[in-house]
């Protein structure tokens, strides 16, 4: 079936107007060391904004004829785009927010390739080297603002949520916007779009003209979670681990809405970090929230954390059901504490250098069948490391659900097998089964076929 498509030629505005010959060659090279495939896939995802696809493979197959070329002109570069989804245009002209996102993708892919991956200055085998790389990618994207007081709330939650949960996330965003808080999300639909939409109205009412709506993505997930155009700063991190680190280093607090396997992964990531003994004293407001209809979801998440990570982990978050104002006030108070803590220690407001992130949370995890089978899911290890391994298990489920590579691997080799202690596998099986029952794995209207099998 052919979908409406548009051909166009666009110029960058203000950033990346000039590329070197070597950069252009690398961007147009579809070979192993080239960047063309990653650039094309991310560009297509950005242009597909607002659609109801959450399947990387389906998106690439739907727009097979999509092509993007870089043309060197005497006054700088132009992008020649063929077969772009018509949803990105109004009366034949590209929506401005999408236009900006397209060049943000180009900026980050060029920077990461030239300045990070191929740069001996960054030792990506070391913890501090990885954190340094995350810092430089964010600084290059101009999202680190040294003169602002802490006010950035990271909102996590599912891309596949129901209307009541979506409206609730919007109301929470609105209450935070009224209190001058800015929003950072994974930039896709659902619980990532709601808080930004709500905050936009809150900021407008308070005449806050500099409202920040940060969207942080990565190449594997962007096709499933196309950035919504409210995002006024889009950053593409090289992998899921650096994306998660960017969230916790730049954000001053986190609100978690209902979601599926990806949200469970994020919860395990932040709890694993907060459970590290060296982070015991660091204030980090963390609130789980949803409407009354989602109460059961948080009961299940809370029970899963109790069964696997124990009561110490439960002390690091608050669950607030059906009270957007309280969530906003809780965040405001928590962030005030963060400011006082950092001020007393002369720490930066714009980047959380003090947070100790274990290398187990930083090493990119490739969710292959073998890696998934060999995960260390047992109780006789430090709790923060168990959290790291549980995060990887959920990361694999996300890959099998929505990422192009993951979907193809499942088609070829069958289910991922997840092995571990019965005391951990039982609760994990129940939690994943509840996500399936509540349609949290895929967007509404799509039948879900599990990509995993729990082996006790």
Q: Can you give a write-up of this model?
A:
This protein is of the alpha/beta class and 456 residues long. The protein has two domains: 5-119, MoCo carrier protein-like (MCP/YpsA-like, 2-Layer Sandwich), CATH 3.30.1850; 122-455, Rossmann fold, CATH 3.40.50.450. It is 46% helix and 14% strand. It is built from 17 helices and 14 strands. The strands form four sheets. A seven-stranded parallel β-sheet has the order 9-8-7-6-10-11-12, with helices on both faces. It starts with a strand and ends with a strand. The mean pLDDT is 90.
Q: Key features?
A:
456 residues; alpha/beta; MCP/YpsA-like; Rossmann fold; 2 domains; seven-stranded parallel beta sheet; three-stranded antiparallel beta sheet; 17 helices; 46% helix; globular
CATH class identity of the largest domain: Alpha Beta
Can you give the helix content as a percent range? 40-55%
Q: Low-confidence parts lasting 5 or more residues at pLDDT below 50?
A: none
Number of helices: 17
CATH topology of the largest domain: Rossmann fold
Report how far apart the termini are: 43 Å
**Quick one: overall form?**
globular
Strand order of the largest sheet: 9-8-7-6-10-11-12
Largest sheet, in brief, is: 7 strands, parallel
The average pLDDT is 90
- Beta-strand percent range: 5-15%
By secondary-structure content and strand pairing, the structural class works out as alpha/beta
Number of domains: 2
Number of E strands:
14
Radius of gyration: 21 Å
Write a concise synopsis of the structure shown.
By secondary structure, the chain is α/β, with parallel strands linked by helices. The chain contains 17 helices and 14 strands.
């Amino acid at each position: 079936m052919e979908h409406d498509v548009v051909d166009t030629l666009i110029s960058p505005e203000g950033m990346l107007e000039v590329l070197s010959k070597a950069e252009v060659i690398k961007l147009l090279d579809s070979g192993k060391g080239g960047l063309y495939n990653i650039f094309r896939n991310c560009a297509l995802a950005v242009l597909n904004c607002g659609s109801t696809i959450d399947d990387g493979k389906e998106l690439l197959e739907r727009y097979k004829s999509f092509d993007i070329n870089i043309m060197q002109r005497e006054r700088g570069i132009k992008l020649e785009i063929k077969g772009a989804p018509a949803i990105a245009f109004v009366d034949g002209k590209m929506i401005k927010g999408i236009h900006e996102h397209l060049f943000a993708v180009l900026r980050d892919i060029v920077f990461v390739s030239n300045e990070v991956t191929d740069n001996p200055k960054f030792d990506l085998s070391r913890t501090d080297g990885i954190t340094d790389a995350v810092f430089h990618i964010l600084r290059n994207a101009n999202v680190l603002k040294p003169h602002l007081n802490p006010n950035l709330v990271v909102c996590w939650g599912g891309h596949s949520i129901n209307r009541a949960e979506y409206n609730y996330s919007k109301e929470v965003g609105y209450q935070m916007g009224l209190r001058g808080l800015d929003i950072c999300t994974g930039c896709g639909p659902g619980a990532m779009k709601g808080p930004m939409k709500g905050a936009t109205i809150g900021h407008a009412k308070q005449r806050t003209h500099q409202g920040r709506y940060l969207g942080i993505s990565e190449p594997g997930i962007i096709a499933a979670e196309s950035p919504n155009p409210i995002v006024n700063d889009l950053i593409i991190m090289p992998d899921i681990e650096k994306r998660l680190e960017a969230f916790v280093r730049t954000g001053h607090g986190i609100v978690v809405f209902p979601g599926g396997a990806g949200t469970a992964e994020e919860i395990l990531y932040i709890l694993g970090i907060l459970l590290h003994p060296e982070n015991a004293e660091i204030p980090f407001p963390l609130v789980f929230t949803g409407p009354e209809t989602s109460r059961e979801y948080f009961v299940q998440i809370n029970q899963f954390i109790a069964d696997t990570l124990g009561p110490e982990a439960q002390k690091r978050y608050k669950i607030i059901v059906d009270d957007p104002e309280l969530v906003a006030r809780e965040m405001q108070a928590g962030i005030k504490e963060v400011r006082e803590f950092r001020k007393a220690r002369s720490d930066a407001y714009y980047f959380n250098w003090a947070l100790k992130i274990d290398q187990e949370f930083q090493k990119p995890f490739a969710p292959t069948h073998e890696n998934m089978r060999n995960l260390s899911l047992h109780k006789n290890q430090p709790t923060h490391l168990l959290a790291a391994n549980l995060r990887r298990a959920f990361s694999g489920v996300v890959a099998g659900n929505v990422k192009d590579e993951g979907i193809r691997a499942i088609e070829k080799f069958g289910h991922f097998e997840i092995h571990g202690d019965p005391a951990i596998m039982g609760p994990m099986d129940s939690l994943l089964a509840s996500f399936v029952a509540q349609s949290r794995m895929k967007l509404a209207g799509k039948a879900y076929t599990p990509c995993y099998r729990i082996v006790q």
